[in-house]
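Residues determine shape. Take a concrete instance:
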Amino acid sequence: MEANFDKTYYRATKYCSYAERCTFDVKKKLIEWKVEDKLHKKILDRLTDEGYINNSRYISSYVSGKFANNKWGKTKIKYSLITKGFDSKTVDAELEKINEAEYNECILRLAKGKIKSVESKKLDSADVRNKTISYLLSKGFELDAIIDNIEKMF
């Protein structure tokens, strides 16, 4: 039993060292590895105590990464984190840290790219506008923010 714990714990530390992980991710991985349920809490507690898992650090990293690298809006980021079991208020507090000017610039950049990609389809202005709004909604941006930023473009 102890050897199984040590082996699994070591494997979990490697998994956590590779990239920032949260409790949900590690628990999912333990299930995937078919680790006995009674070891889950013990492993998760030790990983947390030793700093391999830090959920607040994970949220911060996740928010900044998904916004900067994937160009996700606040809505998509929020619901992605909520599905991992994080509290809505905690996520909202981290989302507030996104620079509003950078957020609006991202919306404009994505909108310009989408408009350019649908221009060749010879659509009228209303269709281009609708496709652009749909695209930005699918990226997780709020409708109000989208409208405020792209209204000058149409």
